[in-house]
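note to self: dont lose this again. the chain is below, predicted strucutre after it. 538 aa total, dont forget to put it in the shared folder this time
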Amino acid sequence: MSQDSASLERRLLLTAEEVASGTFHLFWGGGLATLLSAICAMIVARLLGPELYGIYALAFVAPSFLMLFTDYGVSPALTRFVALHESRGEGGMVLRVLKVGLPFSFTVSIAIFIAGIMFVEQLTTTLTNRPEIAYLTAMCMILILVQPISAAASNALLGFRDMRACAAIDVVRQALRALLSPLLVILGFSVIGAITGYVVAFSIGALTSLILLYRHYRRIREGSVGVREVQGDNFQSILPHMIGYGLPLYLSGILHGLTSTLQGVVLAYSVTNELIGNFRAALSATIPITLISSPVATSLFPAFSKLGLGGEVKTLFSFSVKYTAALIIPAAMFVAFMSRDLVFLLYGESYVHAPLYLTIYSVTYLLAGLGSTVLGSFFSGIGASSINFKAAVLYTIVFASLSAPLTFTFKVEGMLMAIIVAATASTIYSLVIAVRRYKLMPDLNASAKIYLASLLASIIIMPFSLHQLLPSIANLVFSALIYLIAYLTIAPLLQVLTKRELDGLTRIFSTITVLAPIVKVISKYEDMVLKLVSSRSG
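---
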């Protein structure tokens, strides 16, 4: 191996270890936060029932719509520029970015909040077709003040690669929500109590994010020799650059937000509160998949930012698609096949429509084999955020064209079909650009093997899916164990990973102390199956 090749491999390995470590911290924090969120959603949904849970969901439609106009790309720009300038040792520039981004975010949020309160009745009537819930919408408007500043602070922490802090914010927020919302509902405050718990928890979460960010601000300020760098015409010189970088990402976010609002509006005019409650429960039940996909995508963003274009980023891209697909696709298959037990365990048997909705919605996660989890992080990381914007435009056009006619015709199932078609179109567009412009190509052969391994493992647990052989929790536990063993056996039989790739993954994840024992057990089992395959083929 040449010196350049060895250097490239070492740098890629270090980057992979950073991604793995960051993913783990986001995973444990996200895992605990997601677990707390699931517990909260489960209790609240059970206490309220599908009808009131649908009303609870609709109360957030107008505030979520207004929050689209609070960021203008500053939050992702904070991640990009904080990571970039800190990696160069430019402490003064990091301080300037923070001193511009955070005040801007808070100022805009105040203006949007005031406008929202002034027109709360008109917004509620127009967007939800339910003027009687205007008072609930007004309560949710407080989130316009706290969520944007929390997002900005969290993105800055992500730029510092402080995954522990990002995880801690999620845990604090969801722990308080899991405590307050169910408690207030139990005390008889119904939907008002659930919303109050949500708002209070997210407000404290925002304060926590600012406190954690201040530690980095103080550290850099005390260590920066060029104090004069942080003074001067900050807004005039820094803000245009931040918005210039973040605007395509912001517009992408606006488009996704508009589709989310359109989703709520179309459902509000097409189906009952009960079906909306079932729909929201189904989306929330994708917890096991989100738990895997979200931390990985978040950690890859700064990793791509640091590597730049070249052989390194191409190798990281290919590996990232393969490894994320190997995790997300089997998780999506399992959730789709075991949707009934998962929904009934989390939300109760009154949510009779949610299992079907969950099965259909899980299809969107199968796009991981085409790079859906990685492509957005890649384009953002290399500064080509305009491609993400164009992908979002395509998603919005397809979704807007299909959602209303399909939902009016097929109800919630039609809405889910529109989501799947739009997500597929957007992913294929991004993949084509990656292939043609950047000469990147995911290992589609490996993805096909992952699909096949997941499908075969799913067929094995089909008796648990079709028949209630055991109580829901026991049915889920036994089927999960059987599915895991089946997948871990079939994947090496199909040679999804080579021996070298397995050794590399083992080395990367073994650096995380908590995961090391589990990784070693799985690695030994996979290695044993690979040796068996090799001996028989030889």
